[in-house]
Amino acid sequence: MIEGILRFIQEYKYIIIPFLVWFGIQLFKLLYDLITTKKFNFKRILQAGGMPSSHSAVVVSLSTMIAKDVGLNSPIFGVSLIFAFIVMYDAAGVRRAAGKQAKLLNKIVETPGLTGVQVSERLVEVLGHTPFQVLVGAFIGIVVGLLV
Residue 42: which domain range? Predict the structure, then answer.
């Protein structure tokens, strides 16, 4: 039974390990929020943003496993590395800027007498990551990728 599970994980590790990395980091964020806010927010397991970046950890763990298994000079490693850089750039750049804009828009809409705009819910403000959160996620990805 255990042998079969380990063989299955080994066979599909490029899917299973990144998913487990993502789930572990999101679970950590959920538990951290529970401890700090004393409120259980199950939505947190699916939300983006926060420390560390699960996006970075996922793509870097995948890239690291590929580098370890097929080498740094393989085309698939090149593709995975470029993909990882694009995801990390997006997390720290574009999505972070969108989160800052959402925060400002929420402030404007909530200011009495400033606008006549009615909103049913606030915009999500935590979309991206700081560069440090991206680096921590990447470090976790490297460590996991090397340990697998």
Answer: 2-93+128-147
Count of domains for the chain: 1
Which run of H or E residues covers position 35? Answer: helix 13-37
Find the length of the chain.
148
> Which of 47, 52, 136 lies closest to 99, judged by CA?
47
From 18-27, 44-53, 78-87, the region with the lowest mean pLDDT: 44-53
Q: Does 121 reside within a domain?
A: no
Cα Rg for the chain, rounded, in angstroms?
19
> CA 97 → CA 48, 52, 63, 94, 145, distances in Å?
13, 18, 26, 5, 29
Answer whether residue 48 is part of any domain.
yes
CB atoms within 10 A of CB 140: 22
Give the SS3 label for residue 11. Answer: helix
Q: For 51-84, write each residue's pLDDT tens digit.
A: 889 999 999 999 999 999 999 999 999 999 999 9
Position 114: which residue type? L
pTM of the predicted protein model:
0.77
Helix (H) or strand (E) holding 101: helix 94-110
Whether residue 112 lies inside any domain: the answer is no
In a domain, 6, yes or no: yes
